[in-house]
Specification:
The chain has helices at residues 67-79, 101-117, 123-133, 177-189, 213-216, 253-273, 293-302, 311-317, 319-330, 352-364, 377-385, and strands at 2-20, 26-46, 51-55, 84-90, 145-149, 154-157, 165-169, 335-338, 345-348, 369-373. Helices cover 34% and strands 20% of the residues.
């Protein structure tokens, strides 16, 4: 029996990077949001033994390093099942794009395996296995708007927000997440003792402690960018300085994580008290009584000033991604951000028409982009259940 499952993508609504832990991972705080873009994963169980991965994209590993392989291998043991599992992946999402493509593939493979075997694991067991395989896999077992803590694998469902149009730009740039974390550590450790860059945003009424991500990418050279294999420098020149040393403030990574936690807590409190729905000012954000329900709930969260810390190290390395974010804002995005460590960059829009026009505008500028929408938890699971 062959089963086909949609494998949806995610974006990050803010991402705060904390201290590196003893196990080598970093503490994180982020809000995941599933979106309608997806791959297709087909699973079938035949006679024999082992796991076979099929994919026409040469960048997708076919061995045990593939997340689908590792997920299914653990699931077969937990289900005490026998047979040869054949997994065919139709890639529509970028590889290493920050949209959680590989992680979503693995969860889709697990769900497809359960259907093919007509067996199922307890929800807690699936979450445990997913967390063992990768940090952002568990979110795809929840869907919708999800709070991620720990290294991102500890997930909690947030209120199911109405869908909102968005544009996802997918420049053909491969950003290494491990390298982005290493660059972050180097940046943090490179500041004088007791001084750390304030990267999350200051309370209203205070001067901004550091320039925005866009300005950071335009600062004077801090250190020369390494030449590529041909010996030439990047066409964008040397790596830009991340922040001005004269605008440092004493803080540390845990402070940013606390701030993100407080922002989300205040937002949830606003939901429970009805302040968001009634149009009252929330968390210092001016109210707009003309906004629709989707805008009111989702955009009130991003308008609190949440940011993706990865932008501070990725944009200086890849200034073209900073330019994509600028183009999204110029095209009318109400909020724009890098997703994960990139290279995918997204913008949230007030209407589907505005999103479609923005996507066309970016494509005319030479940037691959597509208009889509965020997925509520209910629709996420309904689409998963419907197959391809």
């Amino acid at each position: 029996m062959s089963v086909t499952v949609r494998s949806f993508a995610k974006i990050n609504l803010g991402l705060a990077i904390g201290q590196r832990r003893g196990d080598g991972f970093h503490e994180l705080r982020t809000v995941y949001q599933t979106i309608a873009l997806h791959d297709l994963v087909q699973v079938q169980v035949v006679r024999g033994a082992g796991i076979e991965i099929r994919c026409e994209d040469p960048r997708v590993p076919k061995d045990e390093s593939n997340t689908c392989y590792r997920m299914v291998d653990r699931a077969m043991t937990a289900l005490r099942a026998k047979g040869r599992v054949v997994i065919e992946i139709e890639k529509r999402l970028p590889v290493r794009g920050g949209l959680g493509g590989a992680s979503g593939n693995a969860v889709a493979a697990l769900l497809g395996l359960e259907r093919a075997l007509k067996k199922s694991l307890p929800a807690a067991e699936k979450l445990r296995i997913a967390a063992e395989v990768g940090s952002d896999l568990p979110l795809f077992l929840i869907g919708g708007t999800v709070l991620g803590v720990g290294r991102g694998e500890e997930v909690y469902p947030l209120p199911d927000l109405a869908s909102i149009p968005c544009v996802v730009a997918t420049p053909e740039i491969g950003v290494s997440t491990p390298k982005a974390f290493a660059d972050w550590d180097e940046m943090i450790e490179g500041f004088p003792q007791g001084l750390k860059p304030q990267l999350f945003g200051e309370p209203s009424g205070r001067a901004e402690a550091v320039p925005s991500s866009e300005a950071a990418a335009l600062r004077p050279v801090r250190r020369a960018r390494k030449a590529d294999s041909s010996g030439d420098e990047s066409p964008f020149g040397a790596t830009r300085s991340l922040i001005s040393l004269s605008k440092l403030t004493a803080t540390d990574p845990s402070d940013r994580m606390l701030k993100l936690g407080r922002v989300v807590s205040a937002w949830l409190s606003g939901l429970s008290q009805g302040s968001v729905k009634t149009g009252k000012a929330f968390a210092g954000v001016p109210a707009n009584r003309d906004r629709g329900r989707a805008e009111t709930l989702l955009l009130d969260l991003v308008r609190t000033g949440i940011e993706n810390d990865f932008e501070r190290v990725v944009f200086p390395q890849y200034p073209e991604l900073c330019e994509v974010k600028r183009l999204l804002k110029v095209a009318g995005a109400l909020y724009a951000s890098l997703s994960g460590s990139g290279s995918a960059t997204y913008g949230l829009f007030g209407s589907r028409v505005a999103a479609e026009k923005a996507a066309v505008r970016l494509r005319h500028s030479g940037v691959p982009a597509v208009a889509t929408a965020t997925l509520t938890r209910r629709r996420y699971w309904r689409l998963l259940a419907s197959g391809s």
